[in-house]
Write a structure and sequence with these properties.
Blueprint: H1 10-13, H2 25-37, H3 40-80, H4 90-98, H5 100-132, H6 138-155, H7 157-179, H8 202-209, H9 216-220, H10 229-256, H11 261-266, H12 270-274, H13 278-309, H14 331-347, H15 350-378, H16 391-408, H17 410-429, H18 440-454, E1 468-471, H19 479-489, E2 496-501, H20 508-524, E3 530-535, H21 539-549, E4 559-563, H22 571-583, E5 587-592, E6 604-608, H23 615-627, E7 636-643, H24 646-663, E8 668-673, H25 679-686, E9 692-696, H26 704-715, E10 721-725, H27 732-736
Parallel strand pairs: 1-2, 1-4, 2-3, 4-5, 6-7, 6-9, 7-8, 9-10
Antiparallel strand pairs: 5-10
Helix pairs in contact: 2-7, 2-10, 2-13, 3-8, 3-10, 3-15, 3-16, 4-5, 4-15, 5-6, 5-13, 5-14, 5-15, 5-17, 6-13, 6-14, 7-13, 8-15, 13-14, 15-16, 16-17, 21-22, 22-26
Length: 745
């Protein structure tokens, strides 16, 4: 389906002109980022972290967390300096590189993470307020606070940003008050964790702490409001990470020397007691939690707005893409975000919400790193960032994210990945059409090139499978050929559907349109195939030229599938074409369709066998592949052989059973005694109830036309029959007997 929300033209999509009057680096990126970093976790859970894992454990958690954030920031800087980052922040970056499905699969969890962040910060605010005024109800305070920050965001994003400058002053005041404070008790804190047996494990504590360093998203999500995102995002993000890391490495040292582990664990507002002016901590924690909540409620609706405008969300949610006022504020999305946050405030608490956020943020960080790594690794001409990052650093960041997720909680990680995969599949099935290109074609090109360059020209029996080229003409008229070929490949071999047009005046544009129509026709029938339309003055000459030239390096079609022809006027040309295919070492499968029966019930395949080598081996492989396909699943395969007398029948049956046991295809054997009857009589009598018959065909020689005329007489009245002519320089017997081919040198 067409994407009804596609608004960006290629010209608009890649214009990199600054947005006049937008926010700058300090106000638009550094301020919201540092205020989110120095937030609720720092004030209300840092003492808990130190008390549980000790001083060294805390410094290690801070360093690991900041390292992951720093590597992600490098990737963000690379992407941000390559493209104009518009509304949607991380979602916009991923969708424009990895495609709309990948962007949506990450964008929806990212939105939920941002919406839950609002709850995280307002619950933290409520917890600190109730700590000072115990008579208040934490849920009521949380709900009122959440509604308040939503109203502020609805009134004006710029007003909310300006309010954050005053909050930053309050946080600075609180940190100075803590620095000049004094110990509240003798401290003998464990360096590697609390002595108390009730302390939490390292990775549990890590999961609670990690949202403290996810503040970089607060700046990235404001990308659409920045005057120059390519300049502001890298500078503001790195500055916030650096300042946050210095503060986070200093605070544990102060806390560890001023209180014991148990005190740090049990008192969320322990900083207030050890500060020079205790109420300054309240100013800091209240300011930090409120500013972080404002930052999240500004960012989350903008991600939602971008998702709606790109058509990622269902049609009935497209109203979420609407913007109001001169600054295109997403007020509808803010109201919805308020509802999500209120639900989380009512039913959640800090230690439950934080780990959920950690999983969502780590998933987003991981994909951002993968995006930048792939772009850099492919070295596409279109990817020219001013801030260059080696692909190994981005991939290291992605590996760090995934590793930490599994260390925190393997089950939760699996659920998070499953959630992303489900969204991806859902979006892929909707067949969204984006107005921008993405990196996926480049990925497949790189993989294809690497594979082609490593493929030798020598054929190997162990890895052989058919790569058919079907001379179908109009696919709708000869669908049975494509159906048969698709059953052989199982969507693993490379199937090509080819058509030769005899009008050489057809334009290249019309040929491309025809190929596109055929691809759509095949896709609707779940057939994965390459399509080739070519022109020639004569269809037979065109087919011969196509088979001779079609392919890439060592990867060429090894099997030609074509329909039978009973037209005597073209028999000579037809037989010459088969002989040409054979000389070019292409196996030939001629499908003689019984138009009344088709493939009937697909319950039985008869192979008329003359030995394992040549045609016999290829026929057994073809039958096995059909038998294991979805459309011919569990059909019965009968291998039939005709002998002169009973004595020969015993020997032939014993030999045939031994071969079938060795190749393990599950086929049944049937040795028939001629008793004076002709092969034609036996063939028609024995295979009249089959759904498909496989017959070997002699190698073309000077009498091949006469031989083919006799075959035409033989096929009359038979079910649908495939004439098999093996031509490749490979032993199909070895393909079947691979498990017995090992030997010692």
């Amino acid at each position: 389906m067409k994407n009804p929300f596609r608004r960006s033209s290629p010209d608009k999509e890649y214009v990199i002109s600054p947005q006049k009057g937008g926010l700058g680096t300090f106000g638009g990126v550094f301020t919201p980022s540092i205020l989110t970093i120095l937030g609720v976790i720092m004030y209300l859970r840092f003492g808990w972290v130190v008390g549980n894992v000790g001083l060294i454990g805390t410094l290690l958690i801070v360093t690991i967390s900041t390292s992951i954030t720093f590597l992600t920031a490098l990737s963000i800087a690379a992407i941000a300096t390559d493209q104009r980052v518009r509304i949607g922040g991380a979602y916009y970056m991923i969708s424009r590189s990895l495609g709309i499905e990948s962007g949506g699969a990450i964008g929806i969890p990212l939105y939920l993470a941002q919406a839950l962040s609002v709850a995280l910060y307002t619950v933290g605010f409520a917890e600190s307020v109730v700590g000072v005024f115990p008579t208040l109800d934490i849920k009521i305070v949380g709900v009122i606070t959440t509604i308040g920050v939503a109203i502020l965001a609805l009134v004006s994003a710029k007003a909310a940003i300006r309010a954050q400058y005053f909050i930053m002053f309050g946080i600075l005041l609180s940190l100075l008050s803590l620095l000049f404070g004094s110990p509240i008790e003798q401290s003998n804190i464990e360096m590697w964790g609390a002595a108390d047996r009730h302390s939490e494990g390292f990775w549990v504590v890590f999961a609670v702490f990690f949202p403290a360093v996810t503040g970089i998203m607060a700046g990235v999500n404001m990308s659409g409001d920045l005057e120059n995102p390519a300049k502001s995002i890298p500078r503001g993000t790195f500055a916030a990470i650096g300042v946050g890391y210095v503060i986070y490495m200093a605070l544990p040292i102060i806390l560890a020397h001023r209180a014991d582990a148990l005190t740090l664990i049990e008192d969320p507002l322990i900083m207030r007691k050890m500060s020079y002016w205790g109420d300054a901590i309240l100013i800091g924690v209240w300011g930090a939690t409120l500013s972080s909540a404002v930052g999240s409620i500004l960012g989350a609706p903008r991600v939602l707005q971008a998702l709606a405008r790109d058509g990622v969300l269902p049609r009935w949610l497209r109203w979420l893409g609407r913007g109001d006022g001169e600054d295109d504020s997403p007020r509808a999305g803010t109201v919805l975000t308020l509802g999500v946050a209120l639900a989380a405030v009512w039913f959640g608490n800090l230690n439950i919400i934080a780990p959920i956020l950690t999983m969502f943020f780590l998933t987003t960080y991981g994909v951002l790193n993968i995006t930048a790594g792939i772009e850099r690794l492919l070295n596409s001409p279109s990817f020219r960032p001013k801030f260059k990052v080696h692909w190994a650093l981005s991939m290291l960041g992605a590996l760090g994210c995934i590793s930490v997720m599994f260390l925190i909680n393997a089950v939760a990680t699996g659920i998070a990945f499953l959630f992303v995969i489900i969204i991806y599949i859902w979006l892929q099935r909707r067949e969204l059409e984006a107005a921008w290109g993405d990196v996926r074609r480049g990925i497949w090109m790189a993989i294809t090139r690497a594979g082609l360059m490593r493929m030798g020209t020598e054929q190997e029996s162990k890895t052989w499978r058919p790569h058919p080229l079907v001379l179908s003409g109009a696919p709708t008229n000869r669908w049975h050929l494509i159906d048969f070929a698709s059953a052989l490949t199982h969507n693993r071999g490379i199937l090509t559907v080819a058509t030769v047009l005899t009008d050489e005046n057809i334009s290249a544009e019309r040929k491309n349109n025809m190929e596109s129509n055929i691809r759509d026709f095949l896709a609707k029938r779940s057939v994965q195939a390459l399509v080739r339309v070519t022109t020639a003055p004569d269809p037979f000459e065109g087919a011969e030229r196509l088979i001779e030239s079609y392919g890439l390096g060592a990867l060429v079609p090894n099997t030609v599938i074509l329909g039978d022809s009973e037209n005597k006027n073209i028999r000579e040309q037809y037989c010459k074409m088969i002989a040409t295919f054979h000389r070019q070492k292409r196996n030939v499968l001629v499908v003689h369709e019984n138009k009344e029966m088709g493939f009937s019930e697909r319950k039985r395949i008869d192979i008329w066998w003359g030995g394992l080598q040549g045609n016999g081996g290829l026929m057994m492989i073809l039958a096995y592949l059909l038998q294991s396909s979805r459309t011919w699943w569990d059909t019965e395969v009968r291998i039939k052989m005709v002998v002169q007398d009973e004595k020969a029948a015993e020997d032939a049956n014993r030999n045939l059973v031994r071969i079938v046991d060795q190749i393990r295809t599950g086929a049944k054997t049937e040795v028939l005694v001629s008793e004076g009857r002709s092969f034609n009589e036996i063939l028609h009598e024995s295979s009249k109830d089959a759904d498909l018959v496989l017959l070997g065909m002699a190698e073309p020689d000077k009498d091949f036309i006469s031989y083919y005329e006799n075959i035409q007489q033989r096929l009359k009245g038979l079910p649908t029959t495939v004439l098999v002519l093996a031509a490749e320089g490979i032993s199909f017997g070895e393909v079947l007997m691979q498990q017995d081919s090992y030997h010692e040198d």
